[in-house]
């Protein structure tokens, strides 16, 4: 039986070229190695799963390589590189400080630094989770760390840099590794899926990337959990990932926020309790509401005039305070459902929303303050009506994914793109019934030559951009400034 390696280990970078992201960090380290002016001690810090230990090993292998000439990459051919790959290199010592915390463990390093390397060009000590060393162990290492022999280099890695004494930090070149952007994680996961023949949608990759929270290893571990689903040829969908992780669909969060905004107690509490029943944690619900609240706060803060369909900035600030407190309570309370319900009730009474020009509720029923026309003459007009009635998520989905062939009041022929929610037709029918008190005839087409409103906007933008590039004055500017680009504001 062959030994199976999990994805995170199988695709662990073995040289600088394989490292995803951290471009500036790689350039600094590679230039220092090329010029032979690398500090005698480095400390790599950052959150979990962003490549600290991996980068430390690559640095150690490169420094120990005996055939490396005017380059930062190890040759992978010399005896030193082969011994490293086989895990038998006597001159590259990796120590886990979490299990080797005492003075005696450090003393063994101090006693060995005086001996010259046997197989490699340098002796490299890699100490992972260095913050776990005891205070006395750090003190014992100080003198050697400050003035090691020329053939010795220390590479430390830690997730908790604040626990490392200042006396140690001052003797090290500190390298901060930033969390990976969502796009970088999704792109890397897609490349791995192609090589491993894993069928997965782009939306599912985005959900995995977001769940990784900036950690590449966490995202790859989550992909590993989903991988068996594809063994029989099944394509992994975003819904599969959300079900496994207990992650909410963005539209569900938006609907819950709308219910809170309009004090619709029944809908808000029913939705929250149903999510808990499905296995979504209360912390997850509050966290996503926090993210959405922050988004709306920024919208209000950056708008020249108050955004009519949202709570005022003052009310949103109250939302934020209540949600932060609720998140802290949920981390410690044994009463998850009760604490979540109380937090949602606090939100609904965080501010008087009667001044909002969109809608108010009493007894769970909306009383529209904006007049709805008796007939709807066009699809764009329908989207405007939906926005006025605070059905923002539905309006946005229709704008992006609905390709309308024919439209008249009471009936429409439409094709929904693959990215549209599966229950788009049901949502649209329910909204139209509520707004116009009449059942519309909606025919869903399998294909359509029409474009969605968003696609039409993008096409017009592209045409405008191409037209601008053909303008003689723009051509001259582009020729005078090579590498410049044209954007449409």
- Roughly what is the average pLDDT, rounded to an integer? 87
Strand order of the largest sheet: 2-3-4-1-5
Using the coordinates above, name the CATH class of the largest domain.
Alpha Beta
Fourth-tier CATH superfamily name of the largest domain:
P-loop containing nucleotide triphosphate hydrolases
- Indicate the percent of residues in helices: 40-55%
Please describe what this structure looks like.
Helices cover 50% and strands 11% of the residues. Helix 6 (135-146) links the parallel strand 3 and strand 4. It has helices spanning 7-10, 23-34, 52-64, 79-85, 103-112, 135-146, 166-169, 182-196, 202-211, 216-226, 238-245, 250-261, 265-277, 282-302, 313-332, 336-348, 379-388, 392-401, 424-436, 453-469, 472-480; strands at residues 41-45, 92-96, 123-128, 152-158, 173-176, 359-362, 365-368, 402-408, 411-416, 441-444. A 5-stranded parallel β-sheet has the order 2-3-4-1-5, with helices on one face. A 3-stranded mixed β-sheet has the order 8-9-10. With 489 residues, it is an alpha/beta fold. The relative contact order is 0.06. It is elongated and about 90 Å long. It has 4 domains: 7-176, Rossmann fold (3-Layer(aba) Sandwich); 182-245, Orthogonal Bundle (Helicase, Ruva Protein, domain 3); 250-368, Zinc Finger, Delta Prime, domain 3, CATH 1.20.272; 379-444, Alpha-Beta Plaits (2-Layer Sandwich), CATH 3.30.70. It is built from 21 helices and 10 strands. Helix 15 (313-332) runs antiparallel to helix 16 (336-348).
